[in-house]
Structure formats: structure tokens, C-alpha cells
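Deliverable D4.2, example record:
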Amino acid sequence: MVSFFTVQGILFYVLAALHILPAELFFLVSALLGLVYGSALVLYPVATGDFFGIKYLSENYSYVFTGWGIGGLLFPSAGGYIADLTGGYDLALILSGTFSIAGALMCLYLKKRLALYLQ
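Output generated by the structure prediction step:
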């Protein structure tokens, strides 16, 4: 998950800088971002099972999946609102990249905490 969040963050930063690059790169980076985002569908159930155990995996993952859906409803609107305020999506993409990198750092921290807990 660390690599997933890191690559996703980098791709968000690249998208923010694409106004000076050719349009073909926009489509390539957008496709890569979609592929990386889709990989979360495989990673999140495994991470949920690792952190909370598999006894109640279906119940716990339903909360994770519901949170993912709520984020999918709220954050595109927030990105549009930021674009309306600033005149472009650059700030929204930079914030998304920053939050993705923060997610990678949290995964590293939680990995250490989980290793200590399992000892």
C-alpha cells in the first residue's frame, strides 16, 4: 500500500504540472492514475484483514467500503469547488497528491505498530 499511495501521489503532482506538457501525457498519466486507483480494490480488503483480523472481515470491510463511497461522493465536489475558487484544478491535484503521500507515511507508521503488536 505504501507504493500504491506513493505512486498515486506522484501522479497527482504530475497531473498538476501537465498544463506545460503535451495533451498525450495527460491521457497517459490519467490512465495510470486509474490503474493505480483500481488496485486499491484488491489492497483494502487484505489490509482490513491484517489490521482487524479475519473473524469480522466482512463487517469491517463494509465500513471501509462505505467510507470509500462517501469519499467518492464528497471529494470530487470539493475538487470542483477548489477549481471554482482558484480558476484551475492545480491546487486540488496538489492537495490530493499531498494526502496520498501522507497516506503512504501513515502506512509505514501502522506497519511498525502492527509488527510491535504481533510480537
